[in-house]
Design a protein that fits this description.
Aspartate Aminotransferase, domain 2, binds pyridoxal-5'-phosphate, Aspartate Aminotransferase, domain 1, alpha/beta
Amino acid sequence: MEDRSPCAECEHTRKIFTFLRGFRLFSPREWGTGPPSTLTCVNSDAPWMRTARSAGLVSADGTVRTTIFAEMSALAAQHGAINLGQGYPDDDAPAVVLETAVEAIRAGINQYPPGRGFADLRHAIAEHQQRFYGLKLDPETEVLVTAGATEAMAASLLAFAGPGDEVITLEPFYDAYAAVIGLGGARHVTIPLGEPQFQPTSAAIDAAFSDRTRVVVLNSPHNPTGSILAPEHVERIVALAAQHDAVIVSDEVYEHLVFNGRRHTPVAATPGAAERTLTVSSAAKTFSVTGWKIGWVTGPAALIDAVIGVKQWLTYVNGAPFQGAVAAGLRLPDAFFDELRDTMQRRRDLLAAGLVDAGFVIAPTAGSYFIVADGSDVGLGDAAASARSLAVDPGVVAIPLSAFGRAGGTVSDTALRFAFCKPDDVIAQAVTRLQSLRR
Ligand SMILES: Cc1ncc(COP(=O)(O)O)c(C=O)c1O
């Protein structure tokens, strides 16, 4: 049987507790529910602690913090700050998408959908992959609807990486990856992305792979840096994944937010990749419905079956009335996708110019919702402290880039991530506020 005894520290506290109780020096009520238990021991390897630790949420004193996103959003609300922290748009979804969902609720599409998702949405996802990227998928066996990209990533990682395995991600990384890798008990290995282009070196890619590599997580366009992984790096990673028989999980939620006249290329379109790649995306960023949590994962039938093996015990299914609405969205004409991209590119340019004007040094954003900016020249030092002070004065919320990296890792501790998925006037107001830093 698994050893679930408390750690030495908890055991010591428990003995003191029992000793003092023997002398009736206090009643259990005075010490809450009693001595620390194995379940809540901060030094334990309980799955929830492993998850919190992997996500960098455990403080030196053992307390578990809330995420930086929750903290900064609360600060924004408290101080009336403009929230360029969390990546959610203020825009609404196209009318046809909203109306289809409303009609579905009224028509009684409110019960469990099939385990893989409604056929209509699976077909729409397959049509979308063919229309934009020329990728052919069987909607019956190679497409799975999930509770957002988050569940698709979690189920994919938990399906393939456990104790003794290694999972590679780029660094900085979207925070959920680290948490789920920790939950599964695998080791997290990273490929650092160097500033200001946020591309890896070939040497760093090579160094990340080992005989234990089971999964490689890619994310391009990239959160938090806005970079797009250069094709030669993708090719090298695909070749190494093949050599080590690893699965590639490619998070492409920003696939329709690629700027400067470029087009998105899915990792699965790289020669040799399709047979080992799970491609993850979601309705959240493309249709501005982050609260709906409709995502999907596509790939070879055997890999999808493995992901279902986990996914069916997480949420089983979700979002019945939203699935048809997302299918309608995916079938919208090209003009919708072009306009979305052009609008976000304009907002990127607005924020970029404003940040430069306010004295920040910015990294180029090729895609996604985000600009990385360094405020050292206007007297901002440590980004975690600056983010907290900027929220109060001048009242703009950003996220320290270090929140997307590991303690002692390679991520800059002076850079901030700003989101530009906000209306033009909100960005203009934020920029005006930030300009006060120059004075
Ligand atoms: C890279 C990346 N992956 C996944 C997600 C989550 O997507 P969803 O809301 O569909 O779960 C986000 C949201 O910010 C993201 O930035």
